[in-house]
Amino acid sequence: MNNITQSVTRKIVIKMLVSSGLICGLLLMLIGCGSKLEDIQLKAEKGDAKAQYQLGWMYAQGKDIKQSDDEAIKWYRKSANQGEPSAQSELGTMYANGRGVAQSDTEAIKWFQKAADQGLALGQYNLGSMYYRGTGVGKSDSKALFWFQKAADQGQVDAQYNLGWMYATGKGVAQSDKEAFKWYLKAATDHAIKPGDSYQVMGDAAAQYRLGEMYQEGRGVEQSDSEAVKWYLKASEAGDGEEQRGLSEAQYKLGKMYYEGSGVVKSSTEAVKWLKKAAEQGNVDAQAILNKMQ
User: Fold this and answer.
1) What domains are there in the chain, each with its CATH number?
2) Which of 25, 35, 136, 161 has its CA 20 to 30 A from that of 224?
3) Nearest-CA neighbor of 238 among 228, 229, 226, 251?
4) How are beta strands 191-192 and 200-201 bridged, if at all?
5) For the whole model, what pTM was predicted?
6) Are 205 and 247 spatial neighbours (Cβ–Cβ below 8 Å)?
7) CA-based R_g, the chain, Å
């Protein structure tokens, strides 16, 4: 896959909904996430497209039922054929990844297009990703930008980040640091999935790192080391446990700013703390400073 960034590793990937809490928050299923499996199965068997989609998702994730890609495909297809956009997007993802079905970028594009045409942000993001990579379709930065824009306008965080990157690099659009900053900020900021929603989407760590860079370099915004520190810290603390240990690039730059006293009170203790975290993830620049401090 082609990277959409350089120093921050972030790939254009096909997304699927993986959080039951997120699905509830998005209200993609009118049945309700608290429904019993038997109720969902009954409604699905009777042809309810929302229930078929939910049942497909449960099989795909192994949520309250034995995981089965074959069963997931079966129910996603039934729902998708009835025009359920979320099922169409998930079916496209299964084809793109070759799960439960022979891998086919052509089929993935077909189903992403159907979902995108109905206004589903995830389908629009996935379709934009395919155009950006030129997978199953002719590579087109302008079409990728078009679909990312539609998804980003609906609050799809990955699309917002990608728009920021495309404006920053001038891919498919006139280069603009101000527009890049605007979209990075949207992606970086914690926000509800929709107004009044109790489910929160955490700010995107890569976007937070990019904001730190832009503040530090004075690109698209007034230069401010203190603001750079703020955003590097957010990116450095991203995630928890082994799933995401924070971006090493952000940890390195944060540690270096503590080491130099840029935008923050100079502190060897804080410098070592963040540089070690970055070095543990293989950041050689962080290790080089640690070696100097010994």
Assistant:
1) 205-294 (1.25.40.10)
2) 161
3) 251
4) antiparallel
5) 0.84
6) yes
7) 21
